Amino acid sequence: MILNITTTHYPATDLGFLLHKHPDKFQTLELSIGKAHVFYPEKGDDRTTISLLLDVDPIDLVRGTRNMAGDGFALGQYVNDRPYVASSFMSVAIAKAFSSAMNGRCKDKPELVDVALPFEVLLTSVPAPKGGETLIRKFFEPLGYTVSLQKHTLDDKFTDWGDSKYFTLRLAHTITTQALLSHLYVLIPALDNDKHYYVNDHEIEKLLEKGKGWLHSHPEKEQITRRYLVHLLSLSRKALDRLNEELPLELTGEAPTETEPGKKKESLHDRRIGLVAEKLVASGAERVLDLGCGEGKLVRQLLKKPQFREIAGMDVSYHELLKARERLHFDEMSPKQKERIQLFQGSLTYRDRRLEGYDAAAVVEVIEHLDVNRLKAFERVLFEFARPKTIVLTTPNQEYNVMWETLEAEDMRHNDHRFEWTRQQFADWAGEIGKKYNYKVEILPVGDEAPGVGAPSQMAIFTYGN
What we know:
Elements: E1 2-7, H1 14-19, E2 27-31, E3 34-42, E4 48-56, H2 58-64, H3 88-97, H4 99-102, E5 117-127, H5 132-140, E6 146-153, E7 163-175, H6 177-192, H7 201-210, H8 221-228, H9 233-243, H10 268-282, E8 287-291, H11 297-303, E9 310-315, H12 318-327, H13 335-338, E10 341-345, E11 360-364, H14 375-386, E12 390-396, H15 423-437, E13 439-446, E14 457-464
Parallel strand pairs: 8-9, 8-11, 9-10, 11-12
Antiparallel strand pairs: 1-4, 1-5, 2-3, 3-4, 5-7, 6-7, 12-14, 13-14
Helix pairs in contact: 3-6, 6-8, 7-9, 8-9, 10-11
């Protein structure tokens, strides 16, 4: 397995100073699973390439790594692709071989650390299971890379076996050396969707350290985080909570400056929250209720709108309400701002008079967490008893699940989901609600639509009275 990094910066031999590796020396580094060799296949003022070659020892691989046998394959410890693909082994080698550069240090030419240089990167045999070319592009292109991919067949002699999950990856970008290495360190194992050692809380710190300055704003940060942490839900939540930490609200409640041109696109969750807030504003509501408010992201958005004189958030989890209070920086707010907010604990399946009298209500990605046999109770609580004039409700589109590389068509997105509806099922349910409780219904997609499967999420806007 080889990684080539090439620059055409003049003089290109500056790459040796940046990476702390002399162009005239062949260096070998000892790793727990074998060796890494560093050398320069070409060097000159116009063009210089450094190579990092992994020499994985199959015996060390079995001795030193976690179980890699997989389900139903007893010889997986001994017969696998690990010695030949870009994986977490490569990330470890990058960190060891180029540690000074990854930490933003250059002893002899420190002025080069912050200079964006033209780089070309070659990675052979990049595995991308359940995602393929689309996944690779979604990871690298938002960071500004030009991506070129060559897909490999399983066997040239048996073409009917189809394509493999392996690609030769070429990247081109003008970027700082530290940023380039950080991107490779995080994204290589995230593409591979596996790690050769046990993952614990320490991995969160490494992810946040190497992702500093770019992962927070990456449109695929949730997917990158989950895959980097091998889909360990508790660790992924911790990491995403820290990535999503935001600056305190201005005590005046003023909205921040609009997004500047050239900023990376919003995540699906941010787009969903933004669209819900937009529809609530358009409704003309002044008193708004967020049912299942969680950590208060929608409440935060609504506080930026002077139109809303009262904003209430309800959640069944007291822990989530404490988190919402903390992230809203409630204790730092002015008395006037505090008067606009109420946070209280409650259930969506029991009548609660505190929910009555509001102009509008939001129910964002909540109903799918309810047991189906409790859905009727929820309908009565919201549409019959609380009966706000406007209700904005979103839920996942089950048909879109085939677009997620980690899901099969029949899978649900989270293990806490009790159901997920197709577009037609959602439209039918919303239509029945409208007829029964005298609401006009409008159905909208949330997120970019894909041919044949629609958008990742779906929205219904209920307006009371026909």
